[in-house]
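User: Fold this, then the next.

Assistant: Folding the first:
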Amino acid sequence: MHRHHHPNGVITLTFDSLAAWPVAAHVSTRHGGVSPAPWKSLNFSVLRGDSPDNVAENRRRLASALQLEPAWFVRCHQIHGTGIAKVGWEDAGSTLAASDGLVTDQIGLPLTIVCADCVPLLLYDPAHHALGVVHAGWRGTLNGAATALLWTLQAAYASDPAQLQVCIGPSIGPLSYEVGPEVAALAQLRLPHPAAALHYPNGPQANPHLDLWQANLQLLQQAGVPAEQCEQSAIDTARHTADFFSHRAEQGQCGLFSLVAWLQPAP
């Protein structure tokens, strides 16, 4: 990923694999906002104790850094599910209920999701110039949020999985994500190759660690996305709290960062 220092102090990261395509996607860091500790500083959560005024100013700052209008942003009312909403300019400024993902083919419409350890996932269809994003924690991942996003692109725009570009943003990594036996059991049931996503660094009698990056890649590749078209940041939010919020590492006392993506005019 490439790091961008914007004039107003906001710092974002972009995916290398999208540089050749008419699509923009930025992952915010925690830098450049106005929120005090423990949300310091570019927090986008209004549900974790920060003031709505601070969050609104943070949204303005991110929009300004990306040369967008904050009133354009489309958000999800994230519930750790697999609901995906198709949106257009009539949805600008709205928050879609009971959804964790969004798809569009509308030029310039910013789609946004928020995370603090969950996986921010992006799919881009260059053949039909369509875009999708989804938020996937362990529930969303193992219940197929990535596949639901792919299916929605197929249904809405006739997207071919073999042509999709996949980007997996910063999230909690396999070295940091210990899970309980119930999560491990679900991974065993839902993943094509569970042994590649479950690791036992503390021995076979200890709780496993779940690799959310690998889990999402497996499901997308099972659906027909070529491995060489998948970029993962491999940035572990729990080990990089100077740049990112981490619910696990900060014991819930943190904010949320954002993935913002939008289509640019095709050449």
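Now the next one, as you asked:
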Amino acid sequence: MTIHRGPDLPYLTVAGVTPSSRGWIVASAKLHAATFAVEPPRLFETFLDVVSERPAFASIVVNVPIGYRDSTEDAPRTCDRAARALLGRRGITIANAPTRESLCEGPNWVTTHVDAASMMKLPRYREFFAEMSPFRQRVVYSGHPELSFYQLNGDLPLRWSKLREEGRQERREVLEKRIQGVATILEAELDVPGKHLYDVAALLWTARRVQGRAAKRIPSDAEWDSEGLRMEYVF
């Protein structure tokens, strides 16, 4: 991983990233020893802009699956099934990753084979798919906000959906206990849904854990797809 050691950069920068209808929301923080300095979140137009940022992010945890089944006839990925089992009733938030067919085929195939919820995310997933390679997995890791919150909450699933006020308050309390200055992210005047800001804050925490070699992986034994991409979640 890249370490910035210029005269004015005695730190690393790590990031949590989630796609939205307006682009890619990035929450970052400068990391040096025990110091974790949260920065205001930003909106990037493309994922290529995120990985091309200079100085480069040392670790990126993104809310997008990495590694794909070739077709819908293949069994769901181990990491998706294991994450659902770990989260219990919150496991409903873990969808099966898109297949290579859905990411490569034309609109007629997609309309027939892809559900409505996935259709909304498919343009961002395809953009990410075009930029992702085994080489990038030195820096870019797949996470999921519910898994990050599970770890933040003492290895316990959250009780409420982020769509409810109770869920937003629950997430804020968990984040405030662990991330000093997290209000910089949660209260940012960024023209995106507030739920995304909770997500990127949690993913940012996981990026810190990745950089500190403290993150857990699902599954613990690595699996790769047909193109050599590691299929896992970190949290």
